[in-house]
Amino acid sequence: MTFIRNAWYVAGWSRDFGRSLTPLTIMDEDIVVYRTEAGRAVALTDECPHKRLPLSMGKLKGDAVECGYHGLTFGCDGKCLRVPGQSNLPSSAWVRSYPLHEARGIVWIWMGEAEKADPALAFDMPEFDDPRWAPHYGDALQLESHYLPVADNLCDPAHVSFVHPTTLGSAASEDVPIQCERQGRTVITSRWIKDAPPVGFFKAFGNFGGNVDRWHYYYMHAPNVAVIDFGSAAAEDAIGEDERDRGVRLFALHFLTPVSETRTVDHWMHLRNIGLDDEEMGARMNEQFRIAFAEDKAIMEAIQQRERKPPARKPVRIAIDRGPNFLRRIIAEMAAEEAPREAVQAAG
Amino acid sequence: MTFIRNAWYVAGWSRDFGRSLTPLTIMDEDIVVYRTEAGRAVALTDECPHKRLPLSMGKLKGDAVECGYHGLTFGCDGKCLRVPGQSNLPSSAWVRSYPLHEARGIVWIWMGEAEKADPALAFDMPEFDDPRWAPHYGDALQLESHYLPVADNLCDPAHVSFVHPTTLGSAASEDVPIQCERQGRTVITSRWIKDAPPVGFFKAFGNFGGNVDRWHYYYMHAPNVAVIDFGSAAAEDAIGEDERDRGVRLFALHFLTPVSETRTVDHWMHLRNIGLDDEEMGARMNEQFRIAFAEDKAIMEAIQQRERKPPARKPVRIAIDRGPNFLRRIIAEMAAEEAPREAVQAAG
Amino acid sequence: MTFIRNAWYVAGWSRDFGRSLTPLTIMDEDIVVYRTEAGRAVALTDECPHKRLPLSMGKLKGDAVECGYHGLTFGCDGKCLRVPGQSNLPSSAWVRSYPLHEARGIVWIWMGEAEKADPALAFDMPEFDDPRWAPHYGDALQLESHYLPVADNLCDPAHVSFVHPTTLGSAASEDVPIQCERQGRTVITSRWIKDAPPVGFFKAFGNFGGNVDRWHYYYMHAPNVAVIDFGSAAAEDAIGEDERDRGVRLFALHFLTPVSETRTVDHWMHLRNIGLDDEEMGARMNEQFRIAFAEDKAIMEAIQQRERKPPARKPVRIAIDRGPNFLRRIIAEMAAEEAPREAVQAAG
After folding, report:
1. First-last CA distance in chain C
2. Does domain C8-119 have CATH number 2.170.150.40?
3. Max Cα separation, chain B?
4. Which of chain B's residues have a Cβ under 8 Å away from the Cβ of C83?
5. Residue B323 per-residue DSSP state
6. Secondary structure (DSSP) of B202-270
7. B313, C51: Cβ pair inside 8 Å?
8. CATH 3.90.380.10 fits A126-332, yes or no
9. How far is the C-alpha of A167 from the C-alpha of A298, rounded, in Å?
10. C177: cis peptide before it, omega within 30°?
């Protein structure tokens, strides 16, 4: 399974990078990230083109990187600035410089054609600027899984009842049907569980006296960003589908970054409409998310292990697969769009 | 090297299974074993046909298993009983249910064609019911080795002098010739070491004052069950070959189960004709066996390591290879018998 | 990359071998080394030709080795002396015996054609016998790297400024040009850094009051032996290139032994012309070497990791590559010389 390259991927939280050389792997490419003296984030191929030593084993010299083996030095744009012991610089001495975009405490990297790296394409949502919402950053969860099964899981509210019974789901939702639609390159799956006891998360944070209406909306923006809108409101309030702000409402954000064919990082965070100044509440919510996402991780990784053997037969298809099926179709379309470029490159 | 499928293999001791989901791997197949509410052991393919999650990561619901990802539920016969969120059950939603047979505290599994799974074919011996014999269960020894070199070792009394010098053998037997014959699908190798000091095991348990006659009879029932009849009698008694019950006599049983091409489990136990009510003596005997079988394990695993490289030349053949050679011929015959079935399956 | 077989390689220090069976791997061949009762070192293939058990898991019996599985016994020349249980010895029952040469506390092994194993070809230097020099043995450094990048590093004084800034190099030498020549099968690279502060090593051992002239001469004797002549003399003494004995001078010796395509052992030691009776000084010098060689190891191993992926493009060539380029050409010549022999063997 190939990766979609023309998209913004999260390289890390802004707090992850500074005046040191931080190695990353994305789509099997070794990358070193650092900040210039002025604070701008830079991403270069993490390999000296002379002897292949990772540049991240070298030193930052001003805004440039000096290789730790023979001192070849590369600037922010990837051009070689110095070869010790000689005055001429070989024209082949350069490394790739990746387009970066930093906003909302997130550093995004563009893995595809540089000329298409439009910052306006990077994910954003207005609630980051809205005083009725508080953002709270989470973790970089490592999963030993290809990113697509993780993305499938983010088009699939049905798993919540079985995988997250103590936090985000309960048996009450097991048989509630799921709505599913495709809008451009986004898959939207959702369901409402009406008039049921609050699940663990909303017992902890909702302060509800009786039954609630609970919703889950999963917006999976292919290939790599998911926004999960979920919340609960007192059942007696009988709120409408468009009145979700009247309840306790959260957006859980997942930014998937493929590391390799068998590893993915999920940078996750949330925004909430309660306890806006209560950092401690945000931290406690993240504790609940950590429990839930560790449950997902266990499942993704067990499946990845199984994928090492070819399947004995065709997978069973069931109704709740509609969301993941939409996603895979979008991914196939995006891959086909990129394929000619690759073919041209390979031929060139 | 292929496996012989139409045979009973030990899945585990009866005590290993209960009202929980126990994952096993046999012949590279993932299997989950549990007991019904009535106590019957059940073995199913340990993989949901929807997303390949191991069913053993799910839950036991009555006599059925619920997948931990989306709640697909399978009965003892492997048929799907429920797909949450929909009323129709896809005909492809089933898992394999393996024939089991439980007797003598042992759970046997049949890896081949279900219609051939005759419980009468499972290994048994009358001494289990004989008041002059006491059985004592042992361990499930993991060996990082294909099962055939382990089975070879169980047609090979010659190794005992060199591999087990402190417990089961001694230098006195190094050059004593070995008898070898084939009876149907059983290889019988044996030798008597006459009028020699008792070996470690019989020093510990035989209470002999002087020299003994010692015998080793290895019955290797292809492909996977070995019965080792060994014992000692005072040399001065000069017992006949058929009077072995007059001495201290044991049956060490080995049940080999191939896990993969490079891993085997050896479930071993013994029956003895002394100390019938002395559980503590049985436990001390097992301590001696543990020492000896760890010695075998070290050798099997070192050889398996070497088998990762192709051999530089043809192996040397020596006289004591007759037993293993018989065994390999029987295995080849059994494999040939099964081959047409596989060809038919592959074509079907 | 193939190995050069017709050369003496270090099997170990003399102190490493005694009256026990020591397993080694060289060029992917498993070898067992031991000493006879008379003290002579012997090296045999570490694999019984019967069942492939490592002979090093057996026992030393006089000057012969008894296999730990069935007791086959092999003499110093590799011929089978005994097969227990039978009187005839199969002609195929033998193992290879490798030529060894022991001198200066070092055991050398010849991996190629035995008839070419001339002890006079083994590395030696007159300073071992010279009362103005003291030898001091070092370690057997394991590197997870093919041996050729390690050998490249020993034709490359340029790396010292960047890799060993606290011990053997300093920024003062970064741009000093390197002399390079080939003499037969030896690559000689060198440079003098004149009138600069002493580097860490000579701060610790030179007792210099002011600036020094420092030299590095790397003699890389293909395929596997490097002699590094380095030292410092007071700049005010203005010594000539041939007057190096007037300064503090050391020979660091590196003996590379390929274990496999991805592993090398570097047996290293030094000779020095100061503190001849001061064993403690030798030990402290080795501490400095240990720091420096661990720095080399980190770089070699990082590069080996990268070599697991095919390179994305051709490596950049720079001026300081001349030494390694000479070396690779010599290695190619030696490999070509051996190739016909191999072709003949393969055909035979």
Report:
1. 23
2. no
3. 79
4. 318-319
5. H
6. HHHHT--SS-EEEEEEEEEETTTEEEEEEEEEEGGG---TT-GGGSEEEEEEEEEEEEETTEEEEEEEE
7. no
8. yes
9. 16
10. no
Summary mean pLDDT of chain B: 95
The CATH fold of domain B131-332? Naphthalene 1,2-dioxygenase Alpha Subunit; Chain A, domain 1 (3.90.380)
Mean pLDDT of chain A: 95
Inform me whether the pLDDT recorded for A348 exceeds 90. Answer: no
Give the separation between CA B188 and CA B218, rounded to whole angstroms.
6
* Cβ contact, residue pair C319, A86, below 8 Å: yes
Tokens of C214: 């420092």
Q: For residue A315, give the nearest of B50, B70, B71 by CB distance.
A: B50
Cβ of A68 within 8 Å of Cβ of C306? The answer is no
Residue C85, SS3? coil
Chain C residues with CB under 8 Å of A66 CB are: 162
- How far off is chain A from C164, nearest CA to CA, in Å? 10
- What is chain C's length? 348
pLDDT tens-digit map of A111-168: 999 999 999 999 999 999 999 999 999 999 999 999 999 999 999 999 999 999 999 9
Q: Which residues of chain C have a pLDDT value below 50?
A: 344, 346-348
Tokens of C61: 């019996």
Rg value, chain C, Cα: 23
pLDDT of amino acid C344? 47
Residues 45-64 in C contacting B (C-alpha not used; CB under 8 Å):
47, 49-54, 57
- Any chain B CB within 8 A of the CB of A310? no
Domain spans, chain C = 8-119, 129-332
Task: Name A211's Cβ contacts closer than 8 Å, sequence gap at least 6.
Answer: A195, A196, A197, A198, A234, A235
Query: Under DSSP, is residue A290 helix (H, G, I), strand (E, B) or coil?
Result: helix
Name the residue type at position B57: M
* Contact yes or no for A162 and B69 at CB 8 A: yes
Name the residue of chain A whose CA is nearest to B66's CA: A162
Contact residues, chain A, for C300 at CB < 8 Å: none
A314 touches chain B (CB under 8 A): yes
- Contacts by C279-287, CB closer than 8 A, 24 or more apart: C279/C136, C281/C205, C282/C134, C282/C136, C283/C136, C284/C204, C284/C205, C285/C136, C285/C201, C285/C205, C285/C250, C286/C136, C286/C138, C286/C139
pLDDT in tens, C293-319: 999 999 999 999 999 999 988 999 999
Dihedral sign of CA atoms A145, A148, A154, A158 in order: negative
Whether C244 and C213 have beta carbons less than 8 Å apart is answered as: no
**Span C214-224, pLDDT tens digits:** 999 999 999 99
Of A158, C232, A251, which is closest to residue B67 (Cα–Cα)? A158
* pLDDT at position C348: 38
Domain C129-332: state its class.
alpha beta
Domains A8-119 and A126-332 equal at CATH topology level:
no
On the question of pLDDT at A312 being above 90, the answer is no
Which run of H or E residues covers position A162?
helix A160-163
- Percent with pLDDT over 90 in chain B: 94
A chain contacts of residue B73, beta-carbon cutoff 8 Å? none
